[in-house]
């Protein structure tokens, strides 16, 4: 009596470890790819040099002029706060957001990021969030490095004040980071809709934000990123421009939540909606 051999079950093709398709994982991976690409660009090094410029100037000034006669030691990190108010808050932060924000969505043709989004089922909100987060992480790295360098240059002969002023330094970093996040996302949203006039529109937005922060109107102050930042510093920064508004010290975490809701979450949703109107094609470009 013959017996018929039972065929062994066929194994699925491409057996082995499967790609992680978790939406959060895909978004974080896209953010990592974006950050790596930015770190290799000239823009990163240019902005880092601009950020560290005051560090060199402050360090040279402190070394040359430090003397008990001029009373520098009686103003712990006083020059640092002047630099923070004049340079970082008023100039460097808006310039950094402007330089990095316009390229958040407009990726280069056949970039690695576009290849990643073509072969992974990532949602539009994940694309927007991943690219924004990648730019944001690099911007935070530049800010924290520049601020720390400037702080240490000013306090090099005041080490005894280091631990007393360290909490204020952390507060400054936190405030500038959430302010940068608000500026970056809003400017990225403008760049998504209007590619050519986006620079002009973004500059106008930054000027309006500064103008609102100086007016005694609660509604305008509520929607001003600059006011939210100034209101979050534990020690008020020196102000070098005329103002009709006296800024008191508020709750930094509450101000950060307001900025994240109005100027990060809302622009991300708008960018995701705008991306849904585009089709990413295999050539690496976008078609409307």
Automatic annotation (TrEMBL):
Keyword Cytoplasm found: no
Q: Does the keyword Transmembrane apply?
A: yes
Keyword annotations from UniProtKB, A to Z: Membrane, Transmembrane, Transmembrane helix
Q: Which GO terms describe its molecular function?
A: ABC-type transporter activity
At the top level of its lineage, which domain of life is listed?
A: Bacteria
GO cellular component terms given for this protein: plasma membrane
Pfam families tied to this protein: ABC2_membrane_2 (PF12679)
User: Can you tell me where the transmembrane regions are?
Assistant: 43-64, 84-105, 132-157, 169-190, 197-213, 252-273
Stated name of the protein: ABC transporter permease
Which organism is this entry from?
Answer: Acanthopleuribacter pedis
| Taxonomic classification | Bacteria, Pseudomonadati, Acidobacteriota, Holophagae, Acanthopleuribacterales
